[in-house]
Amino acid sequence: MWLMNYITKNSLTSPNAVKGNVNKNDRDGTAVVSSGEHKRLKSCFPYGIFSVPPTGERAVVLPLDDGEVGLGVIANSTDLEEGELMLYSKGGASIVLKNDGRVLVNGKELAV
Q1: For the residues of 70-91, what is the DSSP string, one character each?
Q2: Which of 50 and 14 is assigned the larger pLDDT?
Q3: What is the pLDDT averaged over residues 48-59?
Q4: SS3 call for 3
Q5: Alpha-carbon distance 100 to 96, whole Å?
Q6: Is the pLDDT assigned to residue 56 strictly greater than 50?
């Protein structure tokens, strides 16, 4: 049993993710250019969340056995503390969930 697990674990090569720049978005998916062009990418998000990455953002692409998937864009640094969450748009709108229970919408505290 352990031998079969060892052989299986060590004989498979894991796919290598690549990063590149978002080149285009349309109905067919996202295109990312790295060492080559990755077209018609489907995106990978947690359930209930969807986003269309803006052209020019740095994105990560993961090859799978049945194609490729866009994992998302590489986040820029923020002033968030560990455990906090931010949603933001290209136009500048943002929602921040703070560790102390506060909710900031576009930088202003939401009264609850």
Answers
A1: EEEEPPPP-SPPTT-EEEE-TT
A2: 50
A3: 87
A4: helix
A5: 11
A6: yes
| Mean pLDDT over the full length of the chain | 82
For the chain, how far is it from start to end, CA to CA, in angstroms? 57
Which is nearest to 34 in space by CA: 74, 4, 5, 1?
A: 74
CB atoms within 10 A of CB 60: 17
List the domain boundaries for the chain: 14-73, 76-112
If DSSP codes are grouped into helix, strand and coil, which group holds residue 69?
strand
| Cα–Cα distance measured from residue 66 to residue 64, given in angstroms and rounded to the nearest whole number | 5
Q: What is the pLDDT of residue 43?
A: 83
Q: What's the per-residue H, E or C state across 7-27?
A: HHHHHCCCCCCEEEEEEEEEC
